[in-house]
C-alpha cells in the first residue's frame, strides 16, 4: 500500500499535480471504504490543511466525491474506482482546461492571420496546426460518445491494427510481468 501511494505521488508530480495531492488520490483510490480528512491526514502523515487543499483540487479535477453518513457531521471522501472512468475523467478535464482553449485561440489566430500581413507560409502552418488539432478533438468526441463496450472493442482492435500496420503482426508480443 505504501509503495503504491509513494509511486502514485511521484507519477502525479510528473503530470503536474502536487505530490501530496496525488498521494491523497492514491490512498482514496485503493481504499475499500470512504475516508475522512482526519483519516487521510493520519495515514499519510500530512497536515490537515494540506489534506483540505488537496481534496479541493481533486474535487476540481472531478476525481473525488464527498459523501455523508447518518449521525456524522464529517465529510467522507471516495475516489473514482473504475480505472476506465478515472482515465476518461482526467482526459476530459485536461481537454476542457488545456486543449479547448488552445483550439479556440488557434481559431482566432487563424482568422486574424487571414486578414493581416502574416506571410502565407506562416498562415499555412497555423491552419495545418489548427486543422490537425480540431480533427483529433473531433475524433476524441466521437469515441467518447460511444458505449463503454464499443470503446473497449476499439482499443483491442486498435492494438491489433497498429501491429498489423507497423508490420509487427507476425512478431510475438512480449508478455508483461504480473506482480
TrEMBL record:
Can you give the residue ranges of the HTH marR-type domain? 16-74
Q: Which Pfam families match?
A: MarR_2
Q: Which CDD domains does the record match to this protein? A: HTH_ARSR (cd00090)
Task: Write out the GO MF terms.
Answer: DNA binding; DNA-binding transcription factor activity
Could you list this entry's UniProt keywords, alphabetically sorted. DNA-binding, Transcription, Transcription regulation
- Any keyword Phosphoprotein? no
Protein origin, superkingdom: Bacteria
Return the PANTHER family for the record: HTH-TYPE TRANSCRIPTIONAL REGULATOR MJ1563-RELATED
The family assignment reads:
Belongs to the GbsR family.
The protein in question is named: HTH-type transcriptional regulator
Which organism is this entry from?
Pseudooceanicola batsensis (strain ATCC BAA-863 / DSM 15984 / KCTC 12145 / HTCC2597) (Oceanicola batsensis)
Question: Which lineage?
Answer: Bacteria, Pseudomonadati, Pseudomonadota, Alphaproteobacteria, Rhodobacterales
Amino acid at each position: 500500500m505504501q509503495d503504491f501511494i509513494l509511486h502514485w505521488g511521484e507519477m502525479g508530480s510528473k503530470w503536474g499535480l502536487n505530490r501530496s495531492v496525488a498521494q491523497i488520490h492514491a490512498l482514496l483510490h485503493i481504499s475499500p471504504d470512504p475516508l475522512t480528512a482526519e483519516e487521510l491526514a493520519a495515514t499519510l502523515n500530512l497536515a490537515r490543511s494540506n489534506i483540505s487543499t488537496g481534496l479541493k483540487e481533486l474535487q476540481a479535477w472531478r476525481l473525488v466525491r464527498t459523501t455523508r453518513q447518518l449521525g456524522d457531521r464529517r465529510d467522507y471522501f471516495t475516489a473514482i474506482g473504475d480505472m476506465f472512468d478515472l482515465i476518461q475523467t482526467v482526459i476530459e478535464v485536461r481537454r476542457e482546461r488545456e486543449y479547448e482553449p488552445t483550439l479556440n485561440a488557434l481559431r482566432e489566430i487563424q482568422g486574424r492571420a487571414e486578414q493581416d500581413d502574416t506571410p502565407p507560409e506562416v498562415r499555412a502552418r497555423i491552419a495545418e496546426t489548427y486543422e490537425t488539432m480540431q480533427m483529433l478533438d473531433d475524433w476524441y468526441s466521437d469515441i467518447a460518445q460511444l458505449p463503454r463496450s464499443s470503446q473497449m472493442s476499439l482499443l483491442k482492435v486498435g492494438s491489433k491494427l497498429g501491429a498489423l500496420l507497423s508490420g509487427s503482426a507476425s512478431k510475438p508480443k512480449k508478455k508483461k510481468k504480473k506482480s
